[in-house]
Write a structure and sequence with these properties.
The complex is a heterodimer of chains A (about 575) and B (about 90). With about 575 residues, chain A is an alpha/beta fold. In chain A, about 50% of the residues lie in helices and about 15% in strands. In chain A, strands 10-11-12-13-14-15-16-17 form an eight-stranded parallel beta barrel. Chain A has a five-stranded mixed beta sheet with strand order 2-7-6-5-4, with helices on one face. In chain A, β14, α18 and β15 form a beta-alpha-beta unit. In chain A, α22 packs across α26. Chain B has a single domain, classed as 2-Layer Sandwich (Histidine-containing Protein, Chain: A). In chain B, about 35% of the residues lie in helices and about 25% in strands. Chain B has three helices and four strands. Chain B is globular. Classes of the chains: A alpha/beta (about 575), B alpha+beta (about 90).
């Protein structure tokens, strides 16, 4: 029996064979075509390259707007390679003379160029060279009958092992038999991490000895205890088989009936869900929660590797709203942080480009009005299916909100002129998650209908990402509670609702602290709903408010952690729970 | 068919960015255009073809054009190369 260690990204247990995935190794069907199929094959290639060119042109526009001509020209090279005369000639020849299917032919030709280019690297080392693999990948993707091209289908339930995993990989493999994930690189707060937890796939990262796992028949992935076991003896295996079964049962369990929405002393407390995919929303029982507090619209872009058009968006949003049966859905406008955008670009050469750092949030959308307009049209058109709210990410000035409102007004006028129905009652909210916005809370409260506190980013901006101890998270930092209290006070003055959406709201101890300083609504991932409801139903808000002063005057993270844990142990811990 | 030799005077040779400019320009002509370097002859309208030549800074290439507008093509492309592909 051998054990290797990793870091937990998503909890759970899985037992199964390994599926080792190396990026850029495509499954290419090695089939020959009949002579009458030749023209059709070449047409397929034409369609595939023009689709890929469409994607890249869209990217080029964005890059040109935000960076410079130089970066845009790197995409020009990819675009040129897509329609390269010589490549087309050679592929045509291979298809016509050797009768290879077009995907195979294209793959062969491009691989030859790729190899030849690799040899020239010594000369071009001062300049990034063309990302020919990206070109190849995009075309193969469009040639492939399957929708996804990043990761292949797993033919049997397997543990996915790779150097790293992209969000689109996870989206794909969770549909096709992935029961666990092991990677060498990957962080807890990464998008892949958020997705693995959303899909409840056990995931260990920072596993340094991946080589040792490859080739083993069966491994036990114990993400809970951060270890991978192979060649397990009978007893250990037996125990784990039991735990893996329990995990599967708990994973399948959807919440039945409504979870509590008031505290033990009868004060209302709302629990909303965070989501990013239609499939997530379809999998739940909507009546168990009070609505969607955050729908991350940019996930649709990661899924399709491009920005969906108005109609595609409209379709998705409408389905999400209909699925919620009249409960409120809060859509956040596209939030392209650096990581998300780069995942979408999926261009290797941009991965380390610091130029992308200041992208993201509502400012990105305001700078790309056509993108924002089509999204707003999709929101408004879908609003006939149920109540929706619109939320702006990373707001840092009142001016941004005013500009947004103007665009919204124009979209409304446009739709009226076109005779398209939409709801007139759509509330507008601002996410409070940057340092700048903390200085203008009152002015902002005057302009929006609600606040939503994004604790993940807020803690990054206020405290930094450094963790003092692995046990005590950033959100126990005194600065966080002081800031949130300030936000709550401001919202109260202007009588607008405020909620917390982020990891902090899902942490049972931190949740008690939030309740103490006046938070009455949180939006969390669905898997955390039950736990949040348990805490809410077992605490008396009147009692918990008594610790607010102590909480806000504390000047030490550990002090806060200890205080909140004690309150939890005294009130919520099983054994004390019966009071409810 | 005409040919003319020209020296690469830009800093890093005929790498991605200059090659992109070169292909764009070459594609504007009806004539077939080729670049010959180290005994290898490639289609000057093919970005990948140009890149695998790996033309180093200071090297001499031969531009060849064949067609109705061959004269103009050679003139424009030689000027472009001498002018460091309008990039520096």
């Amino acid at each position: 029996m051998k054990i290797i260690k990793g870091i937990k990204i998503s909890p759970g247990i899985a037992i199964g064979p390994i599926y080792y995935f190396e990026r850029y190794k495509f499954p290419i069907p090695k089939t020959y075509i009949k002579s009458e199929e030749r023209d059709n094959e070449l047409m397929r290639l034409k369609r595939a390259t023009s689709k890929a060119a469409g994607e890249l042109s869209q990217l080029r526009e964005l890059v040109l707007d935000h960076l410079d001509e130089g970066h845009a020209r790197m995409i020009d090279a990819q675009l040129m390679a897509l329609t390269d005369e010589e490549v087309m000639k050679e592929v045509k020849k291979v298809v016509q003379e050797e009768r290879k299917n077009v995907m195979w032919a294209y793959f062969d030709v491009m691989t030859q160029y790729e190899k030849a280019l690799d040899k020239t690297l010594y000369i071009y080392h001062k300049e990034r060279y063309i990302d020919i693999r990206d070109v190849k990948k995009r075309v193969i993707h469009h040639l492939s009958a399957e929708k996804q091209y990043t990761a292949p289908d797993l033919t049997e339930p397997s543990i996915f092992v790779s150097k790293r995993i992209s969000p689109s990989d996870i989206i794909h493999i969770h549909h096709v038999n992935a029961i666990g994930i092991i990677t060498e690189i990957g962080g807890f707060d990464s998008h892949s991490g958020i997705l693995a937890r959303a899909f409840r796939i056990p995931y260990l990262s920072n596993v340094l000895e991946i080589d040792k796992i490859i080739g083993t028949e069966e491994v036990i992935l114990d993400a809970d205890e951060e270890k991978i076991i192979f060649n397990a003896n009978k007893n250990v295996m037996k125990e784990y088989e039991k735990r893996a079964r329990q995990f599967l049962i708990s994973k399948k369990k959807s919440l039945r009936g409504q979870v509590v929405h008031e505290s033990r002393d009868g004060l209302p407390f709302h629990i909303f869900m965070n989501a990013g995919f239609l499939s997530e929303v379809e999998a739940i029982e909507p009546s168990s929660i009070q609505g969607i507090g955050l729908f991350r619209t940019e996930y649709q872009c990661i899924e399709s590797n491009s920005i969906p058009d108005e109609d595609d968006q409209f379709e998705t949003y409408s389905k999400v709203i209909k699925n919620m049966n009249g409960l409120q859905v809060t859509f956040r406008t596209f939030d392209f942080g650096r990581d998300k955008f780069i995942d979408m670009l999926d261009l290797e050469m941009f991965h380390q480009d610091q130029f992308f750092d200041d992208w993201g949030g509502i400012s990105f959308c305001l700078e790309n009005p056509s993108l924002l307009t089509s999204q707003l049209r999709a929101f408004l058109r879908s609003s006939v299916h149920g109540p929706i709210q619109i939320m702006l990410p990373m707001v840092s000035s009142v001016d941004e909100v005013l500009k947004f409102k103007e665009i919204l007004r124009n979209v409304q006028i446009e739709l009226r002129e076109e005779g398209i129905a939409f709801s007139e009652k759509i509330y507008l909210g601002a996410m409070i998650e940057t340092k700048d916005v903390m200085q203008i809370l009152d002015d902002l409260a005057h302009e929006v209908d609600f606040f939503s506190i994004g604790t993940n980013d807020l803690s990054l901006y206020l405290i930094g990402s450094e963790r003092k101890s692995s046990l005590i998270k950033n959100h126990y930092h005194p600065v966080m509670f002081q800031a949130i209290s300030k936000i709550v006070e401001s919202a109260k003055r202007y009588q607008i609702p405020v909620n917390v959406c982020g990891e902090m709201g899902a942490d049972p101890y931190a949740l008690i602290g939030l309740a103490a300083i006046g938070i009455r609504a949180v939006s969390v991932s669905y898997s955390a709903v039950q736990q949040v409801a348990e805490v809410v139903g077992n605490i008396s808000i009147r009692e918990v408010e008594l610790i607010a002063d102590e909480l806000l005057s504390a000047d030490d993270t550990l002090e806060i952690y200890t205080m909140l844990k004690k309150f939890y142990d005294d009130n919520v811990k099983p054994g004390n729970a019966e009071v409810a | 068919m005409i040919q003319q030799s020209v020296r690469i005077v830009n800093k890093y040779g005929l790498h991605t960015r200059p090659a992109t400019v070169f292909v764009t320009q070459a594609s504007k002509f009806k004539s077939d255009v080729f670049v010959i370097y180290n005994g290898v002859r490639v289609n000057a309208k093919s970005i990948l073809g140009l890149l695998i030549l790996a033309v180093e800074p200071g090297a001499e290439i031969t531009i060849e054009a064949d067609g109705d507008d061959e004269k103009e093509a050679i003139e424009k492309l030689v000027a472009l190369t001498k002018n460091k592909f309008n990039l520096e």
